[in-house]
Amino acid sequence: MLDLQKTSYTKFFRFNLRAQCILLLVCMVCSSPPEDPVKCSSQMSNCTITNSYGAFPDRTICRAAEVIYPTTEKELLAAVAKATMNKTKVKVVTKYSHSIPKLVCPDGEDGLLISTRYLNRTIEVNAPAMTITVESGITLKELIEQAANAGLALPYTPYWWGLTIGGLLGTGAHGSTLWGTGSAVHDYVVGIRIVTPAMPNEGYAKVRSLDNNSQPDMDAAKVSLGVLGVISQITLKLQPLFKRSMRYSAKDDSDLGGQVTIFGQQHEFADISWYPSQHKAVYRIDDRVPSNVSGSGVNDFIGFRSTLSVALALIRSSEESQESTSNANGKCINAKLTASTLMSTGFGYSNNGVVFIGYPIVGYQNRLQASGSCLDSFRDGHITACPWDPRVKGEFFHQTTISIGLSNVKYFIEDVQKLRDIEPKAFCGVELYNGILMRYVKASSAYLGKQEDGVDFDITYYRSKNPMTPRLYEDIIEELEQIALFKYGGLPHWGKNRNIAFDGVIKKYERARDFLKVKQKYDPMRLFSSEWTDQVLGVKGNVNIVKDGCALEGLCICSEDTHCAPDKGYVCRPGQVYKDARVCTRLDFHRKL
Ligand SMILES: Cc1cc2nc3c(=O)[nH]c(=O)nc-3n(C[C@H](O)[C@H](O)[C@H](O)COP(=O)(O)OP(=O)(O)OC[C@H]3O[C@@H](n4cnc5c(N)ncnc54)[C@H](O)[C@@H]3O)c2cc1C
Ligand SMILES: *[C@@H]1O[C@H](CO)[C@@H](O)[C@H](O)[C@H]1NC(C)=O
Ligand SMILES: *[C@@H]1O[C@H](CO)[C@@H](O)[C@H](O)[C@H]1NC(C)=O
Ligand SMILES: *[C@@H]1O[C@H](CO)[C@@H](O)[C@H](O)[C@H]1NC(C)=O
Ligand SMILES: *[C@@H]1O[C@H](CO)[C@@H](O)[C@H](O)[C@H]1NC(C)=O
Ligand SMILES: *[C@@H]1O[C@H](CO)[C@@H](O)[C@H](O)[C@H]1NC(C)=O
């Protein structure tokens, strides 16, 4: 009885929260900016390093002996020389460290971290040539602003301002388009200056200057996972600043598989948010317009705004309670409400920087492509924060982000629909995090870039604070992950995902050997390599961590019941649509066998 009361109370509360609080309680002038991911016990030595979520996939904490904050290329050169001389393992860390996998960890405990925090200047904007040269630690926000000041624009970028140019290139980050050169920022790189180890007679470190004729080096350096050296500067090819006009259109998802390629060809900045349990897909109809079309629209995406910590905690508590009581209906009600509220309030877009009146939103590229107002703000002692800030009780999630070649996208979508039809409520949890974001990506000449044109599926879902606690509909999302990776050979985003997404990943890259040749030339002592990069690059070992409960966190694919949570009724079984999948399923609950 008490439980029941509690559940309906939280349900009611959550209803209110999702509907109103997120929108009303968002504080636009105050917040706590994210903290430095590096913490040292004495000055700049004896340090720990984590990511912006405060948790790697395996939940370990990484250590390093020292962190250095170079402010010039010269200081950067000295830092790499010192590491080379001393044969110290090195990793580059950025201002916020947004990647989920353990890319930032040097091996052992006596490695060196080189931070790009103070390498954030704009070196040159060449308006006639339409290029910009920046230091690698500049944030996407600042880069977009600097380009716009000169009347120029990057046509496609990730949607979140907080990434650095060095980090987003390192992991192949992208926006969404099927047009022209495609949506990956690395395909607009025309110059790179990279500091690598060197021979003693060269001073132990040197700057290599690459342009678009420097092959094969450039195709390796454009997406490098940080293993080639430290990128000091980057030159990007830009376009004249332009305006866009966008609107969202919600449709039934029954023909999504058939529509997806056509839609990508029709609209330059197309993307799709898919809500499988609601049988709904929201299409972003978004194209360039002449600059005399009036409009001064601004994107301030609600999910990237400073949010009151109290609201974040309540939302999280309510999701935790729905998980612990297996309250799928509660999740579905909230998911519907979240989606319709976001849709009717324009997701945080405004027509003029102040209010959302309605679609279309017309505005300049630099105001529409990306956002992240929770980044810049005063310190307020965590009264507000970015929703995933680990210092407050808030969002904590897994992210499965995999791109599927265009020729397979239709079949993948149909498989997801089959899973949905077997378990109609299974995707409500994903819909609480804005559904499955589908974005277009194109084949790249970068060795570790996309191998073919495709669609990137970005799936965010609940992660328990306790690694041994299974999730509601655990099995369905695990099956989807394995369908994407193994049935359709999907490529995981290098900066997101759980370990199993990288199981055998390097075999999917035709020119991986060419990448490793450049690696050998730039860093023969393998100072920039780590256990993680050796595993994903197929040099040594494998990303799976087999232990009790490992499948719950995506550290392994289950092969025994103990990899799931048999004491909680979750056992290892084949998939329902994809029989080769092995997933943790709760027999009594989901499958009435
Ligand atoms: C809220 C949010 C939204 C996101 N949105 C998108 C999106 O829309 N599209 C998308 O594709 N991705 C997106 N991502 C993922 C993001 O692109 C990647 O996680 C990205 O790599 C993070 O960039 P970062 O600057 O934080 O780099 P980090 O995570 O700190 O670094 C990534 C890698 O690059 C290396 N590196 C960094 N700088 C250098 C350098 N100067 N020289 C050599 N190596 C370097 C690091 O060592 C590391 O190996 C998002 C992430 C978050 C948290
Ligand atoms: C390093 O820091 C840890 C705590 O983070 C501390 O326990 C340890 O004593 C420190 N070691 C040195 C050498 O300072
Ligand atoms: C080289 O490494 C040793 C041992 O790890 C350390 O004591 C020393 O300070 C390092 N020297 C430099 C120049 O970093
Ligand atoms: C560069 O970073 C420093 C330190 O974080 C900051 O104070 C400064 O405003 C930044 N400069 C630019 C141009 O972003
Ligand atoms: C290299 O970039 C320059 C400047 O953008 C461009 O003019 C040239 O055609 C490019 N060359 C190649 C080989 O892509
Ligand atoms: C914009 O300019 C073009 C010519 O440059 C003109 O044909 C068109 O009518 C103008 N549109 C608006 C909305 O003013």
TrEMBL record:
- At the top level, the lineage of the source is Eukaryota
What span is annotated as the signal peptide, if there is one? 1-31
Which PROSITE patterns does the entry link to? FAD_PCMH
Q: Does the keyword Oxidoreductase apply?
A: yes
Q: Which Pfam families match?
A: ALO (PF04030), FAD_binding_4 (PF01565), GULLO2-like_3rd (PF22906)
Task: Give the record's keywords alphabetically.
Answer: Ascorbate biosynthesis, Oxidoreductase, Signal
One Gene Ontology term of the biological-process aspect is:
L-ascorbic acid biosynthetic process
Q: Which InterPro entries did the record assign?
A: ALO_C, FAD-bd_PCMH, FAD-bd_PCMH-like_sf, FAD-bd_PCMH_sub2, FAD-linked_Oxidoreductases_BP, GULLO2-like_C, GULO_Plant, Oxid_FAD_bind_N
Catalysed reaction(s) here are: L-gulono-1,4-lactone + O2 = L-ascorbate + H2O2 + H(+)
Show where the FAD-binding PCMH-type domain sits: 60-241
Any GO CC annotation of this UniProt entry: membrane
Pathway terms, separated by semicolons: Cofactor biosynthesis; L-ascorbate biosynthesis
The family classification in the record reads: Belongs to the oxygen-dependent FAD-linked oxidoreductase family.
Q: What is this protein called?
A: L-gulonolactone oxidase
Q: Which organism is it from?
A: Aquilegia coerulea (Rocky mountain columbine)
